Amino acid sequence: MKLGAFSASLSVKDIHASKTFYEYLGFEVFAGDIERNYLIMKNGNALIGLFQGMFENNILTFNPGWDENASKLDSFDDVRAIQKKLQSKGVSLLSEADETTSGPASCMLTDPDGNTILIDQHV
User: Fold this and answer.
1) What sign does the CA torsion over 10, 16, 17, 23 have?
2) Is 27 helix (H, G, I), strand (E, B) or coil?
3) Pairing mode of beta strands 38-43, 28-33
4) Which of 6, 45, 62, 102 lies 20 to 30 Å from 39 when distance is taken between CA atoms?
5) What does the pLDDT look like over 96-107, one tens digit per residue?
6) What is the Cα–Cα distance from 65 to 47, expressed in whole angstroms?
7) What are the tens digits of pLDDT across the range 37-89?
8) In what side-by-side order are the strands of the sheet with 59-63?
9) Residue 103: count of CB within 10 angstroms of its CB
10) Which positions ≥6 away from 32 have C-beta within 8 Å?
11) How far is the C-alpha of 51 from the C-alpha of 37, rounded, in Å?
C-alpha cells in the first residue's frame, strides 16, 4: 500500500508554546494558520501538525497522493482502495470514505494499542 506522506498530528494545549518548542527542535512552519489554531511544521522530511482544540488525542496521519512537501505524487493508492484492502483483512474502520466518490476523502481506524490513524487524501 502506498500511504503517502506521514505526519504526527498533535493535540496541543497552547499552540504558541508548542510552536516555539518545535522551533527549538529545528522545525519551521510549513502550512496552516495559527489564528485558526493549527500549524503544519517541517524539519527535513519530518512533518508534525499542531492542533489546538480540534481533537482529543494525537493522531498518526497519512496523506495518499502527497509527498512530504504536499506535492502531488504521480502514482498513489486511492484512499478508497486502501480502505477496501483494510476491510478485506478484517480491519474495522472508525469512519469510511464514500466509495461512490473520487478525489479528496478520508478514513480512520485504530491500531491494537488504541492509537488513531487517519488516512486523509487531499487530491
Assistant:
1) positive
2) coil
3) antiparallel
4) 102
5) 999 999 999 999
6) 16
7) 999 999 999 999 999 999 999 999 999 999 999 999 999 999 999 999 999 99
8) 28-33, 38-43, 46-52, 5-12, 59-63, 116-121, 105-110
9) 10
10) 38, 39, 40, 49, 50
11) 6
DSSP 60: E
How far is residue 1's CA from residue 3's CA, in Å, rounded to a whole number?
A: 6
Say which amino acid occupies 100: T
- Helix, strand, coil percentages (3-state) for the chain, rounded to 5, are 20, 40, 45
